[in-house]
Amino acid sequence: MKVFIKKNCFYSDNERMKMSKLKMFVIISIIVLLLIVAGALTAISVASYKPTVAFFNVSEKVQETLLKEIQDMPVGKKNKKLKYNVLVLDSTIPLSSQKQIKKAELLFATMDMDVQDFAKTRKVVPLDKKLLEGMPSATRATALMNKDKLLAVPLLYDMYEIDVNRPAFNDSKVKRISIWNDLVSFLKETKKNDFQPMVLAGGNPDEALNFVGSMVEAVSGKDALVSAEEKIYAAFKTGNKNQVIDVIEKLSKEGEVFYDAIKVIQEIYKDKCLNQSTFSFQTQDSLFYIENELCNTVFLKLSDHRKIDFSVINYYTSIYVPGTSASNDRGFLAPTICGLALKSKNEVTSTLNLLSSSRQSTLSLKTGLAPVQANCSTPDTQADDVRFWLAASTGPIMPLSGALPSEDMKKAAAEWFATQIRFGL
Fold first, then answer.
1. 201 dihedral zone (left: phi>0; alpha: psi -120 to 50; beta)
2. CA angle, 345 as apex, 340 and 347 as ends, to 5°?
3. Which of 139, 144, 323, 354 has the fewest CB atoms within 10 Å distance of its CB?
């Protein structure tokens, strides 16, 4: 029998074999233990998985509604409810400039041209085009596509409209508002020294720009406005504020797209049919005027319409901005809230599928905005009218402010337009 000597110890063959088996047993036990620990950690990680949802340029009310809905709905293969980390992004700077967005799996955003570029260049997760089923064709047109891939699905519509005091209108000589001149006739008839026929929050850059944009569409049509927005956004991407203003100036020369629209606004401003403090007014000022019966007409979004007490707004009728001539070929400025999947997670895509279909009635009811689905219920006439107008139009249009996704450039452009309206081109 062989004997081995190691560190002054003597081992027989049998003892050596026993020690090898023991060592192997210990190694296997350690491996099994590590696998159990790893499995337990994985289970804990899966159980505690919290995806991140980001919100960009979405009102607090809509944020709360969407967050509650996505946390209450069972999703994914295991039909489970998820809790989300919440990331509210700065709406005053472009989405593409915000590094925090890398943390998010799901994004809800009001669509603008920078969000479109972000979706096309950051390789967001393509969505199933079945999400568009049940939407009117005009609504489907707002879904962001890139080479036949669905990148963003529309979920809710806001819309710029005009609210008209119904008793005052019934007492006027104007029988119907079909075109812009009908509205102007009503404004002139209701003009008083202590009374403003029409107000809008022109001190808010978004509202000022989008009133101009609404008039461009009303005068020259959808294609003219979309073309102008593309040119302005191209200037915006240079990062040069002066270049943006140069482009707007060129588009405002006689014969160009902004010229006639500015002239139309100038007319009602100089005739004092439009509040002379328009370009310092904020949204709360417009709401104050309408709530205290200091005006008969107000230009605002559906979402702002919702802020007015029912006892007051019940006396107003919402109409779309009338065209300067009778035409069925209309499009309307409608801020669109969309959903985007930023990472390939089954739960995320399942969430967007439910929000764009079975949860539409709930979203419309809780936010007061218009749904994208053609046949779901709406909370009232206002939301239903917006859905109908957009479905019957050539398609919702991105507001003019969407071409300038930074606060400083919006402000510069709005101030330029205000100067031209007040003092002439």
1. beta
2. 85
3. 354
